[in-house]
Amino acid sequence: MAPWTPATLETDRWETPTARTLVLSVPGWTGHRPGQHVDLRLRAPDGYTAERSYSIASASGPDRLEITVQLDPDGEVSPYLVHDFTPGDQVELRGPLGGWFVWDTTSPDPVVLIGGGSGIVPLAGMVRERRRTGNRALFRLLYSLRTPDDRYYRTELGPAAGPGVDVFLAYTRTAPPGSARGPKRLSVADLNTHGLPAELTPVCFVCGPTPFVETVADGLLALGHDPHRIRTERYGSGGGR
């Protein structure tokens, strides 16, 4: 297991009123694979510690990384990270971790990314790493979210995502005015229309709450996708595992 190391909050930005991206300075960090995560540990003055895992949102690079934390009002860790963690403060970090839910940046295989809520975080990291490395693999991103106000990375996960990356937004509670698709859950028909056909044998990455992940994975199987090319990751309500 990787050792714990200090990480300092360098800067931050708000993605939504309840989700905050943290840019962490980690001296000696040598980078990561897209889709990996880190463990964060908070330590109270009395010695009590609390740990959570968060996917890495940024492209790979030295000495810093980004995570996005969704507030869980009843959580131990996310309320501090969202509301009280200020530039210059430190946490302990361990990683990068994980070897299954990762995208191979050297592969030309097409990719389907399907995220629910804060499950968009590691998928955004894959889109950013594709842009950084110049990989030309065909990407399809399906992002399920409740309302327009809940949308993360709204500038990057749109036309700015780059050539070869198509983004589909599925609103489940409130759709934007004039939207041709009313608010409803992501369906098999959506996967069929906005994903990629099974005949292209894409690698499919699905991330979100457990019921969402299971429903999407079942839908992909019903469309004929190879179960060995469907990779899943489940999240808790605060954006961590």
From TrEMBL:
Domain FAD-binding FR-type: 2-103
Gene3D superfamilies found in the cross-reference section: Nucleotide-binding domain of ferredoxin-NADP reductase (FNR) module, Translation factors
CDD domains hit by this protein: FNR_iron_sulfur_binding_3
InterPro entries for the chain: Cbr1-like_FAD-bd_dom (IPR008333), FAD-bd_FR_type (IPR017927), Flavoprot_Pyr_Nucl_cyt_Rdtase (IPR001709), FNR_nucleotide-bd (IPR039261), MRET (IPR050415), OxRdtase_FAD/NAD-bd (IPR001433), Riboflavin_synthase-like_b-brl (IPR017938)
UniProt keyword list: 2Fe-2S, Iron, Iron-sulfur, Metal-binding
UniProt KW Amino-acid biosynthesis keyword: no
Names of the cofactor(s): FAD
Name of the protein in its database record: Ferredoxin reductase
The organism of origin for this protein: Nocardiopsis changdeensis
